[in-house]
Amino acid sequence: MNKAERIRFLDALRALLGASHVLSEAHDLAPYATDWRKRYHGKPMAVAMPGDTAQVAEVVQLCATHRVPIVPQGGNTGLVGGATTDASGTELLLSLRRMNRIRDLSTADGVLVAEAGCVLAAVQQAADGAGMLFPLSLAAEGSATVGGVLSTNAGGTAVLRYGNARSLCLGLEVVTPQGQIWNGLSALRKDNTGYDLRDLFIGAEGTLGLITAASLQLFARPAARRTAMALVAHAQDAVDLLQQARGALGAGLTGFELMSAHSLQLVQRHFPRLRLPLELSSPWCVLLELSDNEGEAHAQARLEAVLGLAMEQGRVVDAAVAQTLAQAQAMWALREHIPLAQAQEGLNIKHDIAVPISRMAAFVESTAELVTQALPGARLVVFGHLGDGNLHYNVQAPLGGDAADFLARHQDACNRIVHDAAAACGGSFSAEHGVGQLKLDDLLRYKSPVAVAMMRAIKAALDPQGLMNPGKVLRP
């Protein structure tokens, strides 16, 4: 696109959306041009901010006519560079933040319809205001948007009980790469009428079309919640405690997080106001959450019974049960501040792996040995959702070392060690963060050629011009 064509395109874009909703000056583009981890620095041609689905469709049609690539962005909280343009200045960044309305909420159907730019915390609040629960919860819920969490099929802390974003979505509204609007919003739990188009777009990271709204499943709000922290000596003890808690608590067990002592020590160092309820006398800590339909006393008794038995059996070293909502929130704050503490500590090598729970302890022990042998002095910051087999197996530079140099010299080798180990256990190199730009090579390495060929066929069929979030998930 030459300069004259670019001017005509931007003029047409301003005519569609209004000049105030098309950003093209460098200082206006800056907040949208860099990803959350500050790893990728793009250069958008412009930022377009449509206010409704019809405007999204018109923008896509305009881009298709001028062959302008589109990179969708919600809250820009992704961790793999999936919502950042390249540096060519030829891609349009399409921000969905203005599309932030709750369109409908039906307690009878247990469904809430939210637009793609609606922040996750706003969905939770709307459900709570209606006496119901939307259970998807993650550290970035104050800025992550519905479209973003669906496009990456985000997980969060309650997957054990409620499933990931895909499980919580009943239907979608999508603008296709041709600028057509597919109204697949549904309140139905059963609809066996051909291909499941919804599932094509969930987890596709905007490479097949633009999610503009979603029908989200709501649940009855539990009568009580109880949260506890427990210290364990070995990763296998945590796995055994998970099975024991599942057997005793059933579907009431809504959260089960594993955190290394080192990860919590980082939180203490950088956020000293967050106090640990237990002295870190063991290398591992577990965070449990129970949702109960009877009441506070019943929930307390059930959780204490599980932990008491586990302590008698020597599976748990020590434990603390939150007595108030404030204490429970403080426990969760420790878990949620681990990524922030890592960022304060310096650059680090992040991994978002999934491994069968039955092989988790073996993975943790063997991979720790492999990484520390290859990278002497490296600090392992291991935490995540043990209940669904998803760990953030992160590697921090040696204490006092040059973090940027460590990252530049060792990231590829470290990734290979961790991802090979996960694959050997029947696991995945990406559990909930997606592929984006960061893991393009990993997808080709670990996905079967048959799977990659089918993905390419779907991409070519739906987006023959290759304009939807190019360079993400699949290499061109």
What does this structure look like?
The strands form 4 sheets. Strands 12, 13, 14, 15, 16, 17, 18 and 19 form an 8-stranded antiparallel β-sheet that branches. Strand 18 (379-385) and strand 19 form a beta hairpin. The protein has helices spanning 3-17, 26-33, 53-66, 120-129, 146-151, 159-162, 165-168, 197-201, 235-249, 261-270, 296-312, 325-336, 338-345, 360-374, 403-424, 440-446, 449-462, and strands at residues 22-23, 46-48, 70-73, 92-95, 102-106, 111-115, 132-133, 169-175, 181-184, 210-217, 219-220, 224-232, 253-260, 284-292, 318-321, 348-349, 352-354, 379-385, 390-396. It folds into 4 domains: 3-95, Uridine Diphospho-n-acetylenolpyruvylglucosamine Reductase, domain 2; 102-220, Uridine Diphospho-n-acetylenolpyruvylglucosamine Reductase, domain 3, CATH 3.30.465; 224-339, Alpha-Beta Plaits (2-Layer Sandwich); 345-424, Alpha-Beta Plaits (2-Layer Sandwich). The protein starts with a helix and ends in a 14-residue tail after the last helix. The model has no long low-confidence stretch (mean pLDDT 95). With 476 residues, it is of the alpha+beta class. Pfam families: FAD-oxidase_C (PF02913), FAD_binding_4 (PF01565).
What is the residue-mean pLDDT, rounded to a whole number? 95
Strand content: 15-25%
Largest sheet: 8 strands, antiparallel
What is the β-strand count? 19
Radius of gyration from CA coordinates: 23 Å
Structural class of the secondary structure composition?
alpha+beta
Q: What's the CATH architecture of the largest domain?
A: 2-Layer Sandwich
Overall number of domains: 4
According to CATH, what is the class of the largest domain?
Alpha Beta
Report, as a whole number of angstroms, the end-to-end distance: 19 Å
**Principal-axis shape:** globular
- CATH fold-level assignment of the largest domain: Uridine Diphospho-n-acetylenolpyruvylglucosamine Reductase, domain 3
Helix content: 25-40%
Low-confidence runs of at least 5 consecutive residues: none
**What count of helical segments does DSSP give?**
17
